[in-house]
Structures are given as C-alpha cells and as structure tokens.
Amino acid sequence: MAAMTISKVHEMPSGLSKAHTNLLSIQFGYVNSMALRCAIQIGIPDLIHSNDSSSMSLSELAASIPIPETKSPHLYRLMRLLVHLGIFALDENSGTAEPKYILTPASKLLTKNHDNKGVIPFSKMVLDPALVNPLFHLGDWIKMEGSLPFELCHGGNMWAVAAQKPDLNKDFNAAMESDSQLLMSFIVKHSPQLFHGLKLLIDVGGGTGGCARTIAKAFPDLNVKVLDLPQLAADFPKDDGVQFIVGDMFKHIPSTDAILLKNILHDWNDEECVQILKNCKKAVPSKEEGGKVIIMEVVVNSQLKDPEHTQVEYEADVLLMTLTSGWQREEKEWRKIFKDAAFEEYKITPGFGVRSVIELYH
Ligand SMILES: C[S@@+](CC[C@H](N)C(=O)[O-])C[C@H]1O[C@@H](n2cnc3c(N)ncnc32)[C@H](O)[C@@H]1O
Ligand SMILES: C/C=C/c1ccc(O)c(OC)c1
After folding, report:
1. Please, one GO biological process term (predicted)?
2. 247 C-alpha vs ligand 1 centroid, how far in Å?
C-alpha cells in the first residue's frame, strides 16, 4: 500500500485567500450555467421525475440517458457540482448501497408537469449561443457611440434578427410563453381582482399568447387579444378564442378597456417606453371610466428587498443592456417614464417572484 502523509497546512493570509476564491468563483460562474444546460440537454430532471421512486442512482441515470460506460465518472463530476449548487440533492434515506439523486425545488421547475411546460424552454433560450455570444461584445460596445452588443454580434436588433431566423424566433417565443404561463397561472388565482370589470384586454407584445390564453381561460367573459409583430402570426395558435392582431406598438394600439404589458418596457430605453406608453394612454379610457394599463415586470429593489432578488435583477439588467436598449428600473425610474407619458397614478404590488404588478391609470 502506498503511504500518504499530509504535511502541516500553510494557510494563505485569510484576506488574500478569500479575495482569490471570490474572484475565481465569479470567473467560473458560466461553468454553473453550462453544467445546468448539459443536465437539461440530457434530460436529467425528467428522468428522475418520471422514475417510480422519484430518485435515481448514478448507474441508473447512466443507463437511462444512456451514456457510454466510460462517461459515468464524468457524469458523477457534473452531478457533484449540480448537487453543490442545489439543483439536485442526495437522498439520505434511500437505504441503498449506491446513493440516489433526487430533485430539489429548483429542478422540479425543470420538469414537464401537467399544466405548463415548466421553465425548460426559458433555460434553453437563456443559454443559447445566439444570446450568450453578444456578452463577448460588451467591452467593445461600451467604448463606442450607439449600437448594442447584440447588434455587433448579429448585425441587427433582436426582433429583426428573430424575424430572419425561424429557429431563434421559435425558441424565444416558446421561452416567453412558458414564463408567461407560470407567472400568469399564479396571478389569475391570487390576484383575480386585477381583471374584474374589464370586457376587453389587449396583451401588447403578447407573443404566442401564453398570458392571454391563461387569462381567457380563467375569465370566460373577458375578451382577450394579442397584439404583436408579423413574425409571431405563424406560431400563434388559431383555435382557442384568443385573437391575434398584427401591429406595431410604436405606431398604434387599438382602443380597449385595458392593456397588459409583460416583459415589454424592460426591452426599451426611456424615450421608447414613453412612446409606447403614450400609445397605451390613447387606447385606454380614464380611471373613472374603468381603464388601466397592467405592467408585469421587475421593480429593482422593490419593497420586498432580498439579496438574492437583487443579484438576479442586476444580472438581468446587464443581460438586457447586452441584448436590447432596455433597463431593469427602480421605482423612481418607473415613476419618471409614467410622468413623461402623462399618466397620473400608479400602484405597485410586489411579490410575484422577482416580478411586480404595476397598475397604471390616467
Ligand atoms: C420579451 S417578449 C415578451 C412576450 C410576452 N409579453 C411575454 O411576457 O411572454 C417581447 C415581445 O415584444 C414584441 N415586440 C417587439 N417589438 C414590438 C412592436 N414594435 N410592436 C409589438 N410587439 C413588439 C416581440 O415580438 C415579443 O413578442
Ligand atoms: C436571455 C434572455 C433574453 C431576454 C430578452 C428580452 C426579454 O424581454 C427577456 O425577458 C425575460 C429575456
């Protein structure tokens, strides 16, 4: 047997060690994202979820994916990182010789369940090279006038490029739709009063109708329509009673009792937002007459300030800066664009994950 001795530990000064570890951890951040992408790609969350015991050992996973035997030790390394990150966990009570992996609340979101598609389409989109590559252009972009990192990378803005690339367009729309179903199912259940008294609601930039269908199903008497760009028309389901209107929110929004703007204003700068909001104001009646605009977005450091939310909000902000002309806004920044578009009153309700609901009246 080979003998091993461990010599006395020479510790780095703790300040230096901490600093270096902190730096390495941030530098390696993308490895976490890519390990997660790999786990989704090879279907691990659904495999564990659909297993009878809702748990699987390494060898069961390796056989089900399947992967060559030589890759088993590497799957172990991947799972070790993802367990550490809280994506999966080890079942302490499996009673088996080989430890079993189980899902955590985070990976449960990554399974297909009966009433929505989970968050897989959203994860796929976020980690698509077409949306990751623009981040490499931040440094060049910040030193020059105009443009966007996305444009330096792809030669046009997101909506123009999506119109040219059917696969990207499909993946992006599916991602938004899954996010919408998740959020809106919760909202119609817990905040139904948002929609009371309305006869017609237009979801402006409503994509393939994830929000619209969820609202229409919950409130059969409410007429819900989606207004979006022509490239959405082909993928929009036609037989579910939600009408699709081809339009441009910068030009004209048809008259309606209420407008929904979910994940729209964060794609645009203040000037562009004011233009959209002015068109909304023309389309909806005053508060006294029952009109309103419902915005569903992040309010940075909202009343329920939480360090984990703050980090996600700042990360999403830099991503929006990379891909669009938009911003994640703090309340005072929201207030400014509302005022500039001549709205008189707003009410913020936080607490839908990182998202808040803002009701806007004139
Ligand atoms: C981030 S997605 C949000 C989709 C949807 N509201 C949701 O949350 O699932 C932005 C949407 O705005 C649409 N859009 C972009 N420019 C637009 C315009 N000028 N007029 C109408 N819709 C537009 C895009 O096609 C896309 O569907
Ligand atoms: C990679 C993420 C891309 C993205 C781009 C524009 C959006 O409005 C958005 O909303 C959640 C996500």
Report:
1. methylation
2. 11
